[in-house]
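Q: A reviewer asked whether we had any structural model of the full assembly, not just the individual parts. We don't, so I'm hoping you can provide one. Inputs are below.
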Amino acid sequence: MDLAPSPHAPTDRSRDLSQPLDRLGPDETLKADSDQLRGTIALSLLDRITGAVTESDTKLMKFQGIYQQDDRDLRDERRRQKLEPAYQFMVRVRLAGGVCTSEQWLTLDALAREHGGETLRITTRQTFQFHWVLKDSLRPLIQKLHTVLLDTVSACGDDARGVMCSVDPHLSAVHAEVYDLAKRASDHAIPRMRAYHEIWYGEERIAGSAPEEPFYGRTYMPRKFKIGFVIPPINDIDVYTQDLGFIAIAGPDGLEGFNVAIGGGMGRTDQAPATYPRLADVIGFIPKDQVLAVSDAVMAVQRDFGDRRDRARARFKYTVDDKGLDWIVREIEARQGFAFAPARPVAFTTNGDTFGWRQGEDGRHHYTLFVEAGRLDNRPGRPLLDGLREIARAHPGGFRLTPNQNLIIANVAARDRQLIDGLLEGFGLAELNVQSGLRRNAIACVALPTCGLAMAEAERYLPALLPQIDAILERHGLAEEPITLRISGCPNGCSRPYIAEIGLTGRAPGKYNLYLGGGFHGQRLNKMDLENVGEAAILARLDTVIAHYARERLDGERFGDFAIRAGYVPEVKAGRDFNT
Amino acid sequence: MTLTEFPGPGLSEEQWGLIRALAVSLSPEQMLWVSGYFAGHDDGARRRTALAGAASGPPASASSDVRTLTILYASETGNSETLAKDVAAQAKAMGIVVQLADMADYKTRRLKDEQDLLLISSTHGEGDPPQGAADFFEFIEGRKAPRLEHLRFSVLALGDSTYERYCEAGRRLDRRLEDLGARRLHPRTDCDVDYEEPAAAWIAAVLPLCAPDTLQGAGRATAAASAEFELSPRLGAPVAVVSHDKRNPFQAAILDNFVLTGRGSSKETRHVELSLAGSGLNYAPGDALGLQARNDPAVVEALLDALKLTASATLPGKAGPRSLGEALEADYEVTVATPRFLQQWADVTDAGELKGLLAEDRLDARNEFLRGHQVIDIVRAFPAPGVAPAALTAGLRPLQPRLYSIASSPLAVDDEAHLTVSTVHFTLHGTPRFGVASGQLAHRLGAEDTLPVYVQTNPHFRLPEPERPIILIGAGTGVAPYRAFLQHREAEGATGRSWLLFGERNFRTDFLYQTEWQAWLRDKTLTRMDVAFSRDAAQKYYVQHRLVEHAAEVHAWIEDGASVYVCGDAARLAPDVHDALASVFVSQAGLTREEAEDRLRAMARDHRYQRDVY
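A: Here is a predicted structure for the entire assembly that you could use as a starting point for your response.
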């Protein structure tokens, strides 16, 4: 991508890539001096005295999909035992659109059993995360992934993250085409990352004069950059939370193109009003053959103008607000060499999944299985990993991971439905889909004990919290009402809590902010209702609002809409108003 | 107090001034120590002996009618050494010209010139001599050993009847000296772990046989000098100086006691911090702490139940009668059964199976049986309800103190001593069994409790000069003295490089003192560390493999003068590491295996290859 001079009004360049490194944040120097992400990772892996890698290597390894963590439950105990923290790594696979073959599944399953504490996690961005991977297991794990054409390149770090794509099986014809574009966009947008091949596959370093990263350069993106493709009317990927969203527009002859949405993002920092979640703005329509060009242009604008001084404000959403949407759109159009057409009308109905068997337009059958908090493991009476392994062995059609952390057993021929049903039944998995409306629409991030950012529990707390809210709903006759609830252990918002009808973000052990008023299909941010409170206060408040909702809801009115109409929280129309 | 007004014999004005100044500054406790220090000061003693000799004519050894007594000892834990020094002191007191030497340092070519020789040797492992004495044994049992017709000798053999080849090292010396033509002064005495009384009897019997016929001239003068010498704390009359020892242990408060091994470990290793404040006990890195543990009351109770005996039953004892319960808790080993117990119980019960096991040719079966049966298992399987308490205790060996290498340096922890204790725990016949001391530390000690301890010096495991490089090789709790070494070197500001090779089972849970090593690596107190965790990979990997892997560097360090230390398991680690070290010389210096062994022997002689294995 060349850096053509902008044809429109100049802008403040004091915080972006145009500045010398010493005037930017320290991570910019780290990236620039990392020898294109090689750092000292190879040496860190050889250090047998610690299960960790050096601090700078931890940052570089994120670009390679690897997050150093430690078992926070044991941290203090081990310190007293004169043992270092129980270091381990989270390894995130790059799995565009959440589509996984049965062969890949079996490999992932085997690796989870061997290196990953016998558990896998489906993330909110449709991929797998391994947890509990020890340093010595990283290479064997990554090399084994390579054998089934999977890698972890760019699954974290300041680069284009795994590309999401709607999975709704009902839309199979369009899905195939959109998924194909999503996969191409993913492969196109990520760094070339020779370091990955050298460190993890043991390939030789190739000497050459050409720049290693023609697009990314030495400093990559200012911050992570998330791309997603959605197929209406199901907003399962929460397209408005993406940095760059493509909303598929289908006509009578199939896929025509996409509405483009830019500048979404969830992360914020407590007590920092300049940080806020933001929903993406739809800026126009493009024909389907321009996806890669648009992706390049949008990423280049963020690469060149994003804030590289303050990482808390380095996401694209702030660039959009700081420069102004019009300026940004003109800059994008200048770079891609064409203007956006007016956006097409779009209607979403939900961002949740529909469970059980459904038949796609291609006649194939697909089974959506509810997976609480995306956690795949074996528990007494519910051997989920074992059951799914048997299904993967018996079923060649593959799987899809949903952005709601559920699982689709995909492409089942009619005659094989009975086989799958039998296996689900046999492993006690059939009853997993028998859940309340609240549970089916709940998302939790991982949080404690592995995530270093978590301030409070999320995934582990969800099973204790939901029955209590279910009891409130039941008491008020709303047991089957689908309400989105999302809980994150910290304000960064991996579970996309700021668009939930009930959002919770951790502040301290047992303490959360409570947010109300999010849009049911992800179309509106919520607003903080209670700050830094414990479970009792949260439940008391929910009891009040839910009772009121049960009494006075309009026909078909969603809980989030009601919370605003009834005046519990004001409507948030723009990210900048989230904190006001 | 007018003591300080009287100058001592022959002291100069200046000397007396110094002593007076010192005296007023000392606490009573320090005074006691200082008195012992001077009494035992080698140089002073030697000078006095020389003076006495000079005053009364030619030196004693030059006199043709005065024989020289040589006392050789081979010590593993220090008991033989203590005894040998006792003997030397008593011999001097009787006017005997005496030379004392550790077999490890003894020049074997002198053997043919010896006149009277007393040998005190403990037994190590399966009938082996203590490691330091290996060369001596090799020489005396080899073809180069001289005929010794002129030699008179007697052997005191120390052992532990728990082991099959009881007192074997002493027996070997006894046999071999006889074969070489030497004349036995007094029959060999074999001592079990409660060696004090038989040893005293042996000394009392053997020394008069070595004494000169008449005490006159040089002999008398030497005797007079030796009488002073007897006060030496290092030579046998230590009561006033080391107020706490094995016989009179110090009650140490427990400052800390926690598990070092992380959650999920396949073993439990504890860190114990004890207070020696006010004990007068001193130690150096490398020393061990003896810990007089008590048996688990539950084990004693089970034993009493099985025998239908009551804890209050009276047991006659040396110090008067005491209750059986107390005796079993405090005085006897009541867990591990020994061949002696097997014999006693066979006599008590007349059980054919036990008798059968005692046959000479049933060694393997006997060992197998003893491995699988503790005392409680035997009395349950072969009941003798209402047996006389004394008939039970007659088969039991006295409860021995447990020795633990001290894991701290006094320079770093003042008057504390730290221990690294592996909790012995296994299941036998469906019931959990614990080690006596480690079980007590793990399960039966409160914060207010104290433990009876004493210091067991270990002169064969000592840091070299501060500038000399050290290679520290240890597995499991064998790392304990290295923590002491590094604390010491850090406190001293030692400039010598250090390289620690540590082995255990699992990196994540068993990396004992991990954060301390990491800190020492950061501040360069520790130059280098290599680890081997045997259960982390399919292929077992041990410290000796790291030695071989880094053979070039190991060799370079040794060439630079590094001292090599090995601490840990005697049965596996020590020989494997030894082989690895030999292979380093083979691969790096082109030595033959035999030459490599010679190099290691030479290093051991120069105290540059020291081992503390158990």
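A: Points you may want to mention in the reply: Chain A has a mean pLDDT of 95. The CA atoms of residues 120 and 413 of chain A lie 27 Å apart.
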